[in-house]
Design brief:
This protein is mostly beta strands. The chain folds into two domains: 114 residues, Carboxypeptidase-like, regulatory domain (Immunoglobulin-like, Sandwich), CATH 2.60.40.1120; 91 residues, Immunoglobulin-like, CATH 2.60.40.420. 5% of the residues lie in helices and 43% in strands. It contains two helices and 18 strands. The protein has a five-stranded mixed β-sheet. The chain has a four-stranded antiparallel β-sheet with strand order 14-4-16-17, with no helix packed on it. The chain has a four-stranded mixed β-sheet with strand order 6-5-8-11, with no helix packed on it. It is globular, with a radius of gyration of 19 Å. The N and C termini lie far apart (43 Å).
Amino acid sequence: MLLLGIACGSQKQAAPSGPPADAKIVDESKAGSVSGQVTIEGTVPSSPPVPVSADPYCAGQNPNGARFETFVVDNGGLENVFVYVKDKLDYYFEAPTSPVKLDQKGCHYSPHVLGVRVGQTLAVSNSDDTMHNVHAISQGNGEWTKSQALKNMSNEKIFTAREVMVPFKCDVHNWMYAYVGVMDHPYFAVTRDGGKFELKNLPAGTYTVEAWHEKLGTQTQSVTIGEKQSMEITFTFKAPAAGTD
């Protein structure tokens, strides 16, 4: 009962207080966007197999085996890249009231990379009929760990400070990893559908846009957009040399 009470505990989200009287708000009717693609050059290493056989339940959920999601490439586009505006923005952004969801299903985290806003609820659940342990290794928001011993258990976490990126792992199954970008503004995306991304409703200005990948590091570009202007950019990572991690 004690374990159940601990694992089902949640952190309540404070009600939005609303913008200060002098807050600067983005005028979306004049805003633009930055979109594009993240690509990878060279021979992309095969992601190694996941040792799911260590847990009979996990092996049963993955009868054809499973591989790590380190390098997911679609037609030259690199997926699971976190793309975001790196600058601090002089605008007021209210945290969304709807939660971002991170699930443990089939003995892996889904999605593998995601973003959440400061003050927004991150709901982490266990869809598996086996024990998992959620462990966030945060440098700026405090380390956080919750045991989820039963199926359908869920815990909530609210980050109070910006942090790129926060690794999540399962202490029961050491192959389970996810990465969460915590942002104080809404201008971020995770590449999907062939490495594509879009940052919408961005006010006119000059910005540093950064692309983060768990193994290949980061790249940045400076982008200037005018009112109602849409810009396209491309990030190109080089595949690691053979024999490197």
